[in-house]
Amino acid sequence: MIQQVLKPIESLLGRRWVNYCLMLIGTGLALLVIGNTVYRNWSEFQAFSWQLNPLPLVGAGAALVIAFGLNVLTWVLISRALGSRVGFWKDLEIYSFSTVVRRLPGVIWQLAGRTYLYHQAKTTLAVPLWGTVWELFAQFSSATSLTTLMLVLSPRLRTAFPGGMWVLLSLIPMGWFALRPHDLVAVMKRMAPRMTGEPDLTRRNLSAWFGLYVLSWILGGAILYFLTSALSPQARPLFPVCVGLVAASGVLAILVAPIPGGLGIREISLVLLLQLYVPSPVAVAATVMFRLWLLLGEAAIAFLVFLAARGRTWLAQVIHNTP
Questions:
Q1: Rounded to two decimals, what is the model's pTM?
Q2: Helices 126-153 and 54-81 meet at what angle, rounded to 10?
Q3: How many Å apart are CA 34 and CA 107, to the nearest integer?
Q4: Which pLDDT tens digit goes with each residue over 224-258?
Q5: CB pairs under 8 A, 24+ apart, for 111-120?
Q6: At a CB cut-off of 8 Å and minimum separation 6, what does 97 contact?
């Protein structure tokens, strides 16, 4: 039954024009929300003193580099737990390459890039396939936990967040799959019967991945906090708020991840939630800067790391083949 429902959806999303249309719709929705915010608060935008403090940008850059490193470490641990023996530098190369190509329009480029490179490395396809599943699980469960914590601590966010405290219900399946990972394997096999392998994971594996992604989401909140502070001085209590907002927008973005461009959910949610705590001009500008910071910064770091890893692999082969 599930396969019958998913097959026409996969076929539709596999068409290039559908991907481009969905990306345009998402961009249009995000621009519509931002434009409406600017229009409703035009006098506030005109009166706002636009100045950019470069010092917090250094902190945002450092947080991005560290977050990327944590994500790489998580992927290396996931791939090794699933049986990959290609080595740290090859895992690093593959992760970086797939991070760059996922910016292409479509829903499978990251997975396709990982699958191709692991196949070239003569590694079982269970590594990129199941690895991506568990990576998403770690991302979603950690973001959901931080979002729930923020909803409990902030009545203001709880009032504006879609669904309010009903998000607590999502912790039930997350906790269940964390305690019984093989149940998630069974669910995935029913949804995608062609997925091969049955990864034998432990709670220790899942706890490590979960903890690393919690740190990664916190660093994402630090990036937003630094960018907001670069536009206007902010008090320290805004930092945990930014962590919660980034995690909350991340949860919504993951839920619509199969849709190319995500319908602009991350940008829309960040603008609407951030302006609960800071003036509208700062909320809009910080959201745009946050999106560009992640998009360009992460792609640049991934590309440089990919070149470094590929160069090291090539150099090692040359030295090995030299008589």
A1: 0.78
A2: 130
A3: 25
A4: 999 999 988 888 888 988 998 898 888 877 776 65
A5: 117/93, 118/84, 118/86, 118/94
A6: 113, 117, 302, 306
